[in-house]
Amino acid sequence: MSNWKNRCEQLLYAGKTELEEALAMAQSSSWKNFGKRIRFYAPSFMHYKTGYFHSAPATFPSISITGQFCALKCKHCSGKVLNTMLPAVTPEQLFNLCIQLKRKGAIGCLISGGCLPNGSVPLEQFTDAIAKIKQDLGLTVVVHTGVIRLSLAKKLKDAGVDAALIDIIGSNETIKEIYQLNVKVQDFDTSLKALHESEIPYVPHVLVGLHYGKLKGEFKALQMISKYPPSAVIIIALMPIPGTPMKNASPPTSTDIAKVLAMTKLMMPSTPLVLGCMRPKGKTKEEIDILAVEAGVNAIAFPAEKAIELAESLGLEITFSSMCCSQIYEDIWRNL
User: Fold this and answer.
1) CA atoms 261, 265, 267, 270: torsion sign
2) Which DSSP state fits 120?
């Protein structure tokens, strides 16, 4: 098993014993590179309360610059996620909203929105407003870009954006079938290159099981990401949403998610790894979160209490934050 790092794709087909060995190797690698510590995040866009920590109501909200509009209507989302965000569809509305949010106690925000037909989020006209938010209000600003060109990536960098988030898909079939988008895997590779060359902190996301709950393209996505060293990598997983064409799809198993977590840590051992906020709920969530701790992830968003207990039993140094989990790269390097 010592050569798993060079055979990560085979983890997709690993049995229980092989997966356990890979998880142990990933954990050991993580502790070697980052120490025995883990950070838990609970930003305000989702209610969270355990015996350990609870989210604040207005600390880190999410904003949609397109309101409820999305040209793609991907099968797994259909724009439903936009309904959970605060709308601000002009630069003036965005700045004024951020003033109000800061008055209510916000320390930052996620600026996102629906996609245009080419897979991009229309951030171009908002870069001056974002710069003003950074300069005048001092908020932490994280943006979700979609497919992006170098010119926009540079403008976001100049505006002072704290992190750019992008979902990376490694299967042309999934892009066409689920996203209903007329781009190719290469366009996501080009987007990664643009973010890397702009020198903006960027945190790619890989959504496990996007293709109707099955693994398809996740390894390719990680291969692309590893070519352009990111600030951190976030692994999320399909969570069927009511009212979407994939409402009855089976989510990926906790084992499949663990395989991708271990694969990511072994492929990019010096990159902070996060289990992000989107993943199946209930008993499966608890299983995923426990496996994530066993995989040596550096952070978990909205962790199950059992995972926190496991981290304690392993002697990990534990901290909690109300920020977006993409900020792990700032938090982790500050404490090393």
Assistant:
1) positive
2) B
At the top level of CATH, which class does the domain 8-335 belong to? alpha beta
Region of residue 243 (left: phi > 0; alpha: psi -120 to 50; beta: else): left
Contact status, residue 38 vs residue 299, Cβ threshold 8 Å:
yes
Model's pTM, two decimal places? 0.95
Question: Order of strands, edge to edge, in the sheet holding 108-112?
Answer: 86-87, 62-64, 108-112, 140-144, 163-167, 202-208, 233-237, 273-275, 299-301, 37-41, 317-321
Question: Helix 185-198 and helix 218-227: axis angle, to 10°?
Answer: 30
User: Would the pLDDT of 2 be above 60?
Assistant: no
pLDDT in tens, 32-91: 999 999 999 998 777 778 888 877 778 999 999 999 999 998 999 999 999 999 999 999
User: CA–CA separation, 39 vs 289, rounded Å?
Assistant: 13
Q: What share of the chain is helix, strand, coil (3-state, %, to 5)?
A: 45, 15, 40
> CA angle 182-183-189, nearest 5°?
170
